[in-house]
Design brief:
Blueprint: H1 9-29, H2 31-35, H3 43-63, H4 73-89, E1 103-105, E2 108-110, H5 112-131, H6 138-156, H7 161-177, H8 182-201, H9 204-214, H10 225-237, H11 262-294, H12 299-323, H13 341-358
Antiparallel strand pairs: 1-2
């Protein structure tokens, strides 16, 4: 059995740095919106702070909980059934902005799709651990494809195309790293590409977002408004930024400055240096996450580490790409930075598992 070592201090430092920076940016980016609430304390910072405390406690607990205890079949399938049940139940919850993504508990909300992403990675690692020699055979591909497809389908019904595509992307990344033949990857692309195109074109608001992405200036006060305002924020920051707290775009110009477009506010207030510095922190996170997987003592730990790392880093890449208009607008938060309690708690839980894997060599 592998010897238990100290957790990865590089990885831990990056996680804490991102969390602290995220709290600062939530406070700064939400300042204008928070004034409308007329409260003495910023309510967005308060909720994010509570989520940070809960997430840190969960992270520390999982750091000291051997990840191999999640490997038994009863644990994996128990968590999977619970996750699928929550994804079904949330479809009957009250709508918010035309979607059914949250359970509401008093002033707080819970988004089950955030936990489902972790459970999906856990299931994929379980399958790869037991069938790594049959990676190109139906014994592995069928259960991985069915479960990932079912999770993505339920999330799509909320509707949430962004997280559905993220789940499928992480699934392909893990199975590809395990040795999936190129012909299967190509076949999956041939099937899924037209399907995703249909899902975008067939829904009016998604179609508008796509056309706005292709030519935002065609409708600057309508569908292209978010993309243009985000680019204005990024461009206004220059190299060194306007200064922390001095963003102009958060003054009711850029929608959702503390959640979906927080990266644009980072670029505006801290400039190119701050924006690239944040990207660098996620690259260090990617390096240490991949390293933890490479040094894991078993196949389960390797793919669990890689899956959790891919989920967080790909999500960060999508969010930053939307802010600089490299991708159409999607409501995917920037991990550890954007406002959102469910995302923060789930991300810190994933970090706890990743740190625990790094303790074994």
């Amino acid at each position: 059995m592998a010897k238990k070592l100290a957790f990865d201090k590089w990885l831990f430092t990056v996680i804490v740095a991102l969390l602290g920076f995220g709290l600062i940016m939530v406070y700064s980016a939400s300042a204008a919106v928070a004034r409308d609430h007329g409260q003495g304390i910023n309510p967005f910072l308060l909720k994010q702070g509570v989520a940070a405390v809960v997430g840190l406690l969960l992270m520390v607990a999982l750091m000291h909980f051997d990840y191999r205890r999640f490997r038994p079949m009863v644990v994996v399938y128990g968590l999977l059934c619970l996750s699928l049940a929550s994804l079904v139940a949330v479809l009957f919850s009250p709508e918010l902005n035309g979607t059914s993504r949250w359970f509401f508990i008093g002033p707080f909300s819970l988004q089950p799709s955030e936990g489902a992403k972790i459970v999906l990675v856990l299931f994929l690692a379980y399958q790869l651990d037991r069938k790594i020699e049959r990676v190109n055979q139906p014994q592995l591909l069928v259960p991985c494809g069915l479960v990932a497809g079912l999770c993505a389908f339920l999330v799509l019904l909320e509707p949430d195309l962004g997280n559905a595509v993220l789940m499928l992307t992480v699934t392909f990344v893990l199975v590809f790293l395990a040795g999936l033949a190129w012909r299967y990857l190509f076949a999956a692309g041939v099937v899924l590409a037209p399907l995703i195109w249909f899902l975008v074109i067939s829904v009016p608001y998604r179609r508008q977002r796509l056309f706005a992405f292709l030519d935002p200036e065609k409708d600057p006060l309508g569908s292209g408004f978010q993309a243009l305002q985000s680019l204005i924020a990024v461009g206004s920051g220059g190299v060194f930024g306007l200064g922390l707290g001095d963003s102009m775009q958060k003054q009711y110009f850029l929608p959702h400055p503390h959640s979906d477009f927080v990266y644009a506010i980072v670029a505006e207030e801290l400039g190119l240096i701050g924006a690239l510095g944040l990207v660098a922190l996620f690259m260090v996170f990617l390096w240490r996450g991949v390293r933890a997987g490479l040094r894991a003592p078993d196949t389960f730990g390797r793919y669990l580490a890689w899956g959790l790392t891919a989920t967080i880093v790909i999500q960060a890449m999508i969010n930053a790409s939307v802010a600089v208009a490299l991708l159409p607008t999607k409501g995917i938060p920037l991990p550890l930075i954007s406002y959102g309690g469910s995302s923060l708690v789930a991300t810190l839980a994933a970090c706890g598992l990743l740190l625990n894997i790094s303790e074994h060599s």
